[in-house]
Each structure stands twice: as C-alpha cells, then as structure tokens.
Amino acid sequence: MLTVASDIDALTRFGRALADPIRCRILLALREAPTHPAELADRLEISRTRLSNHLACLRDCGIVVAVPEGRRVRYELADTRLGHALDDLRGAILAVEADRTCPDAEEKGCC
Length: 111
Hints:
Layout: H1 5-18, H2 21-32, H3 37-44, H4 48-60, E1 64-69, E2 72-77, H5 80-96, H6 105-108
Antiparallel strand pairs: 1-2
Protein name: HTH-type transcriptional regulator CmtR
Organism: Streptomyces bingchenggensis (strain BCW-1)
Keywords: Cadmium, DNA-binding, Metal-binding, Transcription, Transcription regulation
C-alpha cells in the first residue's frame, strides 16, 4: 500500500505532539475531560506561560482545539478518536516491552 503525503503529515504531527513529556501529560489530561488552561496548569503543576506554549503547539498540530466560553476558553481534543488512539498506542507500546526506555534518544536522534 502506497503511503500518501497526508498520511505522513498526520503521523508527523501526532509524533510532534507526543515528543514532549508535558504535551503527553496535557493530552492524557484532556483525554479524561476538556478543561480550562488555569485548571490544567494547576493540575499539571506547571506555569501558565509554559502551558500556553505547549497548548499552542498542540493547536498548531491540530490535536487540540480551543472552545470559547464567554470570556474563557476551554481546551479539548480535536476529535474523540484521538483519546482512543492515545489509549491504543500506550497499550501497544507497553505490551511490546514494558521495561524499555530510550536513554540515548537524543544521541541517536530517534526521539
């Protein structure tokens, strides 16, 4: 089966979203329920500025959306299937080798 550029682009965007531990934590939190940035920053114990930068990345990747609610904004996954994809991906990775890490990822350029 021939892979088209849009398939590669979609996987690259998802990979970029998952490439940072804070973005992973944000996605897992939003998988549970949509939330407001202030609440999410408190829950993840990170600064609002740092959270804002990561949310901007996730929005640019098309993974999360900002939903206006009056003067506030609520963040949620762009599609409910992304929550299922996160669960499936996490389960598959853990099933393959739960004790593996990627300690020299930067050196090898793999992660």
